[in-house]
Amino acid sequence: MLLEAAMVLLIISMALFIHEMGHAVATILRNKKAKAEIYMGSPGKEKKLKLKLGRITCYLTVALYAFCQPINSEELPPPTYKQRLTMLIGGPIASLLGFAALYYLSHFFSGVPGNILINLAGASFFLFISPLIPFTYPSFLGGGPSDGLQILNLVKENRRQQKAVL
Predict the structure, then answer these.
(1) Is 95 exposed, middle or buried (0-12, 13-18, 19+ CB in 10 A)?
(2) For the whole prediction, is pTM greater than 0.85?
């Protein structure tokens, strides 16, 4: 039972990593000098595995929540509306692509490896759907706004700005 609980935590962490990589890739694609950091769990860097993937730095641990942030925004021009929208939707898109790839791969493996892949696919699908719902996460899951809430607020802000210009 302890091994199963550990496996569930690892699967959740891997699905979160896939999701946050989507945000990070969208962040660095906005500009050739843009950089991003992914934090699994708390924003601290200590006691975490540091993984550098080009302009993306990851601080990894087993976690129930994660987040991505640009690290050199002050050196870059402010992101456009479309760039901000792309950065926010990048996570759910990565989760959807991860789901499709993992689900497909799970058909080629039987037993425990197949079960791990299908469960990881399911977690990725969950991380495609649930973050698109506009809500604020509870404090034990970071307490921040969901991707859906941030997208909704961004769209509302953009509409207000367009009306002000007219």
Answers:
(1) buried
(2) yes
The answer to whether the beta carbons of residues 38 and 16 sit under 8 Å apart is: no
Structure tokens at 69: 């942030």
The count of other CB atoms within 10 Å of the CB of residue 147 is 24
Q: What is the 3-state secondary structure (H, E, C) of 70-105?
A: ECCHHHCCCCCHHHHHHHHHHHHHHHHHHHHHHHHH
Inter-CA distances, 82 with 96, 97, 156, Å: 20, 21, 14
Q: Please, are residues 124 and 18 in contact by the beta-carbon 8 Å criterion?
A: yes
> Tell me, what's the pLDDT at 110?
96
CA gap 51, 123 in Å, rounded: 22
Q: What is the pLDDT of residues 34-66, one digit of tens each?
A: 999 999 998 989 999 999 999 999 999 999 999
Element containing residue 38 per DSSP (H, E): strand 36-40
- Rounded to whole angstroms, the Cα distance separating 52 from 109 reads 30
Partners of 38 in the β-ladder: 58, 68
> Residue 2 carries which side chain, given as an amino acid letter?
L
Quickly tell me which residue has 């039987």 as its tokens: 110
Q: Could you tell me which residues are beta bridge partners of residue 49?
A: 60
Query: What are the backbone angles phi and psi of residue 143, rounded to the nearest 5°?
Result: 75, 5
